[in-house]
Amino acid sequence: MAPNAAGKGILLKADPIADAFRAEVKDGLAAPHRTPTLVGILATNASPSRFYAEFTRKQCEELGVRFILKEVGSAVKQNGDVDEAMADGDAAEEAIIEANEDNNIDGIMVYYPIFGGQQDHYLQQIVSPLKDVEGLHSKFHYNLYHKCVHLSPDINCIRFITPTSLTSTIPSTKVTQPIIDDIPPPGTVKSIIPCTPLGVVKSLEYIGVYNKILTYGDRAYGKTVTVINRSEVVGRPLAALLANDGARVFSVDIDSIQEYTKRPRSSNATSARQYLPHHISHLCALSLEECLALSDVVISAVPSASYKVKTEWLKEGCVCVNVAADKNFEKDIRDKASIYIPAVGKVTILMLLRNLCVVPLIVCCVLFPLHHLSRTSA
Q1: pTM, whole model, 2 decimals?
Q2: Is 357 noted as a catalytic residue in this protein?
C-alpha cells in the first residue's frame, strides 16, 4: 500500500488482497490425492494473453499446481515458412475437446479474446462444465444471472450449485435451506464464478465496500457502482454479481447504459426495502458523467490504451478499480479517489486456482451423488 500523500487517495496493489486467499488455495490444493493439473489454451499471439499465460504458469508453480500451456493457432512459433503460418484460433476447438477427454486434466482455461463475440461464446460452451475453472459455461452463467429464482427474497444462492444440475438440460432452482453465510448448504457445492468478476468482488470485500453487518446476499446495499464494459467475460457478470449483492449498478458499454438492481422501481415507502429474487436490468437515461457523479465505486475494464475515465467526473472519495490490461484512469485519479486499485490480475489467478479446488468436488458429486448428499447432510 503506497503512503497516503497529502490530499491523495490510497494506491492499493493486489498483493495483500491475493495473499488473503493464498493459504485457502494451498489447503484446497493439498486435499486431493494427486497434484491437480490445469491446462491453458493459448490460440493467439496477443501480448496480454501471452503475459497472462506466463503469469498463470508462475502462480501455479508457486502453489504446486501442474500447469500445461497448449499453444495453437497464431500462438505457435513458426519456422519462417509463410505457408505454414496459422491464424488466430486455428485448432482451438480441437485442443478444448482433447482436454475435455483427458482424464489427467482437472481444469481448463482459454485465453480470450480469440475470435471475439459469438465465436468465443461458442468455444466457452465447448469446455466441459466439469473442468471449467473460469466459470464461463452457460450452466454457471445461468446460476449467476438467475440467482435461483424460486427462492424467497432473503436468500442468496448464486454462489452455490447442485452438482448434478451440470449434467441436466433443465436448469435447477431448488435449494434445500436458506443461506446465511458463505457456506454451501447440504446437497450443494460452491458454484464456479467467472474469475475476474469474482476477483473484483473479493477486492471490494477486502477494502470494506461490502458491509458484513448486513444480511448475506445484500451486503452491497446502499452502494452505487459503475461498471464500464459489458462483455460476457467480465462486465456483465460483474454487474450481475454486484446487483445481486444489493448494489445499484450502472452497466456502461459502447452503445448504451443499463441499470442493474434487484429492488423494484417504486416510490411506495412500504416496499422500499423489498427486493426481487435476482437482479433485473433496464435502459438508463443518465449519461456516463451523471453515473460517475453518483457512484461510490467505479470499475473499468475497457481493452484500450486510449480510453480514460475523466477524473473530474468522479464522485469525491470514491473507490476506483482498473481491470483492463491498460490503465483506464487518468494519472490524477488519486486526487478524487479515496482508494485506487490499479490491477486485479493476482487476485484473478487466485480465484481461478480457488475454482480449481472446487472442480474435483463437483466431479465427485456428479459421479457419486448419493454419497455426497449423505456426507453433506451429516
Answers
A1: 0.82
A2: no
